[in-house]
TrEMBL record:
It comes from Conger conger (Conger eel). GO terms for cellular component: plasma membrane. This is Uncharacterized protein. Its main location: membrane. It holds the Pfam family Ca_hom_mod. The lineage of its organism: Eukaryota, Metazoa, Chordata, Craniata, Vertebrata. Coiled coil: none annotated.
Length: 162
């Protein structure tokens, strides 16, 4: 009886050790074959932590403002003031799974969304009050909002090699 008990423990420890060794080897191979350097990976991790912390802070502040607006409107029986909110599609885009691209240098889906979707000159532009710009201004930029040179929407800084 003790021999079977001992053998099952040895087999169990061998299975655990082989699984751990396999994961260690897979991790080492993945990091050696990664197109991202160790220093860039460290930066990416720090950036992600900072972005998540700021996102938490911004969402708390925005939720606070929205809740205050709704309660004020409810109790004072006044129409609510407009608050700029991301669309459902924008939330989906920044919440989707991030994958590394060799052609574009983005560290998160939020950065990718800001630098591509928000800077797309074909994107429909709106004025600060949500209305479309007058058609008389179409001759200026074809009706789309063109990025200023040197702004975060300028495509030249994003096209850098890694």
């Amino acid at each position: 009886m003790t021999i079977i008990h001992t053998e099952s423990q040895v087999i169990g420890w061998l299975v655990i050790a082989s699984i751990m060794t396999t994961f260690l080897l897979l991790t080492c191979v993945a990091r050696c074959r990664s197109p991202i350097s160790h220093v860039q990976l460290k930066f990416w991790q720090v950036y992600t932590q900072k972005e998540n912390a700021l996102l938490d802070q911004y969402t708390d502040e925005h939720a606070q403002k929205l809740a205050e607006r709704n309660l004020t409107s409810f109790f004072q029986k006044t129409p609510p003031n407009p608050i700029v909110m991301p669309t459902r599609e924008e939330w989906k885009q920044v919440s989707s799974l991030f994958y590394y691209s060799k052609t574009r240098q983005h560290y998160s889906m939020l950065q990718r969304h800001v630098e591509t979707a928000l800077c797309d000159p074909r994107r429909e532009s709106t004025m600060s009050d949500g209305r479309a710009p007058p058609a008389v201004l179409d001759f200026v930029d074809g009706g789309g909002a063109m990025p200023r040179e040197g702004s975060f929407c300028d495509p030249s800084p994003v096209d850098r090699k890694m």
